[in-house]
């Protein structure tokens, strides 16, 4: 149906279906899935999707608006902070004389459309079942990428048949999380958290037009409006609401002032202006980050969806927060931050949005003192980052949980999953290598690398065999607890110490004044650096030169072997199938562990060791984590197995886009979405870094005719096109000075503003002759 009201253009999604995610029909039991899949966010505000959240008589699912950094503990006895949901600002009731309209909608007419190009969610529905009015309804909602405090809701009703009195009520629903009210005024509400001393303010304005003429509310309250009139055929009713949300990290009696200023600025623009600026901001993000695939529509859709959520998950202006495991789209993991951010998300931001990457790393710098405190409390030096982090950086991993058998289980990740410190250092080094951001490196990054290196040198203890061991840890494979010398942990620790030594050398050479100040403040001298060198040389890494295999941890090879093929088609993880205790006695792996090393540090695998380790560990992995498949895909692509990589790529994408894998009601799996991008750009394009440029080793799957994307490298922007039909790799340096491009060991110069075209046939010849792969970021 063509919308003919004043909001017609705004309520019409992008024409190109490649930018749209659409779901029609209505199933109550799947509503939480829709709410996640169609969530929108801007890094400060996150709003779950779904028609049932704000229209109709039955409100079976509580709506959610999330505000980044708004943490509190739910009860006085709780020790685990949670992300606090804000009030439902989308709440609308449309009332007929005998009750709510849309209590009997045509279910097949209900549709959700996520316009990823514009960053807008549309819904539509029709009522035509013996009600006084036949109505066609469309809505729009957005959270502005231009002004992140601002959200907007538009609703348009077309009266198709019937005459009846009609009332539209717009209000703010209560939260299901205890917040203390501070202020309640017609255009503003303010609250504070009970225990964390945070304040929240929401200012709002609303209006309603009937056939283009604005109507005054018939009733008005605190953030509440009501309009009543007689509806008749052909009428077009347009409702708009604009809100502004502010968060303060201390209780502030003036917390509403900034919200009112943000609202006033948005109202001055008007709803059209808010949309225009929001769309312009999204257009800029897509110009920098879009990945285009020809020949595989499903892969294109998966990449667009992943990039949409990645772009909406971060606020580059707010170093107080980071990206949680479910971003701002759901309640799972309480809004906590894990290693997911540094390993699965930072590469995307570093290479497409360096400002956002810098902000996320500044969050880790801001929480460095909490990491130092955790290490000291456990008897070590340096910085041990929290496995689960909220706003302060203190360890907030819950101590216990309820298992599938309803038994209380201790959670050891907070104390034993220590590879997080090396993961943070890895991301810092990635950013430094890709951006050459000297200010960040000297003021923040170097200190993170040095303090995490100090932790590992303290943590790896020298024993009688002459080797240093790291005992009692959990690697990425969380099915096995309290293990010794986990290969991923130890190799990353060794790498971290080596980067610490390199950082110290670099500071001394290029910025001696900064080195003198920093080393004096940290108490870091040459005696300790010598100890670091000895530690890096003697850490046990579990590599067997005879088999070319890394043993995942000491004793892994002696555990019971399980044929996972016999459990194909299962709907639950393997630790549920076998039981937690038996699983720990088997070689069943929860997620990529040694394979994670292969994805992150391929240079440590000599000769054919990469293939041997992949072939050994792949059939032992049960993929009990959403993080696993993406790293398997990246590793497979880099090993020259694009079809295997594509299978993992599709499985990673299906976690949030299909209903056949895991429940997604708790939010999108943002790390898996980051992994989709990683597999495409680092895997299929074979992107890796050199000190003076970028290297490529393309491995496109058969279904992909062409792959095109943009990346940033050291103040430059490049457009890269890999064309299977033309058998070419084309690099255009769109911004910045000339730079080196490597294919194998061949070095080429990409001139500014011109295209560098290289033959894929030549690339294949180099691979046949055994040119070694380069490490990724």
Automatic annotation (TrEMBL):
Keywords: Glycosyltransferase, Hydrolase, Transferase. Coiled coil: none annotated. It holds the Pfam family Glyco_hydro_65m. Residues 304-677 form the Glycoside hydrolase family 65 central catalytic domain. The active site is at 478 (proton donor). GO terms for molecular function: carbohydrate binding; hydrolase activity, hydrolyzing O-glycosyl compounds; kojibiose phosphorylase activity. Substrate binds at residues 339-340, 590-591. Its EC number is 2.4.1.230. InterPro entries: 6-hairpin_glycosidase_sf (IPR008928), 6hp_glycosidase-like_sf (IPR012341), Gal_mutarotase_sf_dom (IPR011013), GH65_N (IPR037018), Glyco_hydro_65_C (IPR005194), Glyco_hydro_65_M (IPR005195), Glyco_hydro_65_N (IPR005196), Malt_Pase/Glycosyl_Hdrlase (IPR017045). GO terms for biological process: carbohydrate metabolic process. Residues 23-246 form the Glycoside hydrolase family 65 N-terminal domain. The keyword Hydrolase applies. Residues 689-748 form the Glycoside hydrolase family 65 C-terminal domain. Belongs to the glycosyl hydrolase 65 family. This is Glycoside hydrolase family 65 central catalytic.
């Amino acid at each position: 149906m063509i919308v003919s009201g004043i909001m017609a253009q705004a309520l019409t999604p992008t024409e190109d279906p490649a930018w749209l995610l659409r779901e029609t029909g209505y199933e109550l039991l799947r509503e939480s899935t829709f709410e996640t899949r169609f969530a929108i966010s801007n890094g400060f505000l996150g709003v779950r999707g779904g028609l049932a959240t704000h229209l109709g008589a039955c409100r079976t699912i509580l709506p959610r608006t999330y505000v980044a950094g708004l943490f509190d503990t739910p009860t006085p006895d709780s020790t685990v902070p949670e992300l606090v949901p804000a009030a439902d600002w989308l709440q609308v009731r449309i009332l007929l004389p005998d009750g709510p309209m849309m209590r009997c909608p045509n279910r097949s007419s209900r549709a959700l459309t996520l316009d990823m190009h514009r960053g807008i969610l549309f819904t539509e529905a029709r009522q035509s079942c013996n009600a006084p009015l036949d109505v066609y309804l469309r809505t729009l909602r957005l959270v502005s990428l231009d002004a992140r405090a601002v959200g907007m809701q538009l609703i348009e009703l077309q009266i198709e048949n019937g005459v009846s009195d009609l009332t539209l009520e717009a209000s703010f629903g209560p939260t299901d999380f205890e917040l203390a009210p501070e202020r309640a005024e017609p255009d503003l509400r303010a609250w504070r958290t009970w225990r964390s001393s945070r304040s929240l303010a929401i200012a709002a304005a609303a209006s309603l037009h009937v056939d283009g003429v604005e109507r005054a509310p018939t009733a008005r309250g605190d953030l509440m409006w009501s309009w009543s009139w007689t509806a008749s055929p052909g009428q077009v009713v347009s409702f708009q609401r604009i809100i502004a949300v502010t968060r303060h990290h201390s209780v502030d009696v003036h917390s509403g002032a900034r919200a009112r200023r943000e609202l006033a600025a948005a109202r001055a623009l008007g709803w059209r202006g808010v949309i225009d600026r929001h769309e312009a901001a999204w257009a800029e993000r897509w110009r920098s980050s879009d990945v285009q695939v020809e020949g595989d529509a499903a892969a294109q859709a998966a990449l667009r969806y992943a990039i949409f959520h990645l772009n909406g998950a971060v606020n580059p202006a707010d170093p107080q927060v980071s990206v949680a495991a479910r971003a701002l789209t759901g309640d799972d993991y309480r809004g906590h931050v894990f290693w997911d951010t540094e390993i699965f998300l930072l590469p995307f931001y570093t290479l497409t949005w360096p400002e956002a990457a810098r902000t996320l790393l500044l969050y880790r710098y801001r929480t460095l003192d909490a990491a130092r405190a955790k290490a000291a409390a456990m008897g070590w030096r340096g910085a041990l980052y929290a496995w689960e982090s909220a706003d302060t950086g203190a360890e907030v991993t819950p101590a216990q949980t309820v298992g599938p058998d309803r038994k209380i289980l201790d959670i050891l990740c907070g104390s034993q999953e220590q590879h997080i410190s090396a993961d943070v250092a890895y991301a810092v080094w990635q950013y430094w290598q890709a951006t050459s951001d000297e200010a960040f490196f000297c003021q923040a990054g170097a200190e993170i690398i040095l303090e995490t290196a100090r932790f590992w040198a303290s943590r790896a203890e020298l024993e009688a065999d002459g080797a240093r061991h790291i005992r009692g840890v959990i690697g990425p494979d969380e099915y096995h607890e309290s293990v010794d010398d986990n290969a991923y942990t130890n190799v990353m620790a060794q790498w971290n110490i080596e980067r610490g030594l390199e950082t110290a050398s670099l500071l001394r050479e290029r910025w001696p004044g900064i080195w003198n100040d920093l080393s004096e403040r940290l108490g870091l001298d040459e005696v300790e650096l010598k100890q670091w060198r000895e530690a890096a040389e003697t850490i046990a890494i579990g590599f067997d030169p005879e088999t070319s295999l890394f043993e995942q941890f000491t004793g892994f090879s002696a555990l019971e072997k399980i044929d996972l093929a016999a459990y194909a088609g299962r709907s639950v993880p393997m630790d549920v199938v076998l039981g937690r205790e038996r699983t720990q006695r088997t070689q069943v792996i929860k997620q990529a562990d040694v394979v994670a090393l292969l994805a992150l540090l391929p240079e440590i695998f000599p000769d054919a060791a990469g293939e041997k380790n992949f072939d050994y560990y792949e059939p032992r992995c049960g993929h009990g984590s959403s993080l696993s498949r993406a790293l398997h895909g990246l590793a497979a692509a880099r090993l020259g197995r694009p079809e295997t990589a594509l299978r993992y790529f599709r499985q990673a994408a299906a976690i949030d886009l299909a209903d056949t894998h895991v429940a997604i009601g708790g939010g999108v799996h943002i790390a898996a979405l980051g992994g989709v991008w990683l597999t495409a750009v680092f895997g299929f394009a074979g992107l890796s870094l050199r000190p003076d440029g970028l290297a490529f080793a393309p491995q496109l799957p058969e279904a992909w005719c062409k792959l095109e994307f943009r990346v940033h490298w050291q103040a430059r922007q490049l457009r890269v096109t890999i064309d299977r039909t033309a058998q070419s790799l084309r690099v255009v340096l769109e911004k910045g000075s000339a730079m080196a491009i490597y294919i194998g060991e061949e070095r080429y110069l990409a001139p500014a503003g011109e295209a560098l075209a290289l033959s894929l046939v030549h690339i294949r010849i180099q691979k046949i002759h055994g040119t070694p792969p380069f490490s990724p970021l």
